[in-house]
């Protein structure tokens, strides 16, 4: 798993535990996911290019740094929305696209239903976010779609991944780095990650039964 980074941080382990717990209320789930996404986003932004420029401290001149890369964050709707605020916490100038995909419950394959992608994506560093990397179908389709818009540099950020999803995404797009808090045991027959944390979208928005 050369292109997979599992972020090991005490705060992230604590937050992931809260997110896994079935009794966590949706408001706490939403806030905790944003905090966890900030930690993952911090790692995803590690390779950003810098531009030097002169500055003056109160005592003397020195060299300062600014972010040289344009960053575009693309959540896969709807659950990916829960990660956006956390990821852009450190780079508020990032632009945000939206890509709507939902899983066909019979075929387990992603179906596109919405796309709004900022211009200039071909030269940007693109961070695709979705809490779950299960079969990998949505992630692969999202990156296929964004490549069709000219995007070239990607990182995929998720909270929890299944081994099957990691393998599928790596096979389809071997150049795309994957950043996650955990790789769980497996997918079940309904293509849910085990042990996982349930349906992230329902838990973010309080729509679970």
Describe the model:
The structure is a single chain. Strands 1, 4, 5, 6, 7, 8, 10 and 12 form an eight-stranded mixed sheet that branches. Strands 9-11-13 form a three-stranded parallel sheet. A two-stranded antiparallel ribbon has the order 2-3. A hairpin with a 6-residue loop joins strand 6 (98-103) and strand 7. The chain contains six helices and 15 strands. By secondary structure, the protein is α/β, with parallel strands linked by helices. The model has no long low-confidence stretch (mean pLDDT 91). The termini are far apart. The longest helix has 19 residues, at 26-44. The relative contact order is 0.18.
Topology (SSEs and partners):
Layout: E1 4-6, H1 10-20, H2 26-44, E2 50-56, E3 61-67, E4 71-77, H3 81-87, E5 95-96, E6 98-103, E7 110-116, E8 125-129, E9 132-133, H4 137-148, E10 153-157, E11 160-161, H5 163-172, E12 177-180, E13 182-183, E14 186-187, E15 193-194, H6 200-205
Parallel strand pairs: 1-12, 4-5, 4-6, 4-8, 8-10, 9-11, 10-12, 11-13
Antiparallel strand pairs: 2-3, 6-7, 14-15
């Amino acid at each position: 798993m050369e292109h997979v980074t599992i972020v090991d941080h005490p705060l992230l382990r604590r937050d992931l535990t809260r997110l896994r717990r079935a009794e966590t209320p949706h408001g706490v789930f939403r806030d905790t996911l944003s905090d966890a996404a900030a930690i993952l986003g911090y790692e995803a932004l590690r390779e950003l290019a810098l531009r030097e420029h002169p500055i003056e401290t109160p005592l003397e001149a020195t060299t300062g740094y600014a972010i040289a890369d344009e960053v575009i964050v693309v959540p896969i709707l709807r659950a990916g929305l829960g990660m956006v605020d956390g990821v852009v916490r450190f780079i508020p100038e990032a632009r945000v696209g939206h890509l709507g995909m939902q899983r066909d419950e019979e075929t387990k394959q992603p179906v596109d239903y919405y796309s709004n992608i900022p211009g200039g994506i071909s030269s940007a560093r693109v961070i695709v976010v979705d809490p779950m990397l299960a079969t990998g179908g949505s992630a692969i389709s999202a990156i296929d779609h964004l490549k069709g818009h000219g995007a070239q540099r990607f990182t995929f950020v998720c909270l929890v991944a299944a081994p099957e999803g990691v393998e599928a995404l790596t096979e389809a797009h071997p150049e795309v780095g994957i950043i996650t808090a955990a790789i769980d045991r497996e997918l079940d027959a309904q293509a849910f990650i085990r042990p996982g944390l349930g349906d992230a979208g329902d838990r973010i928005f309080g729509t679970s039964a």
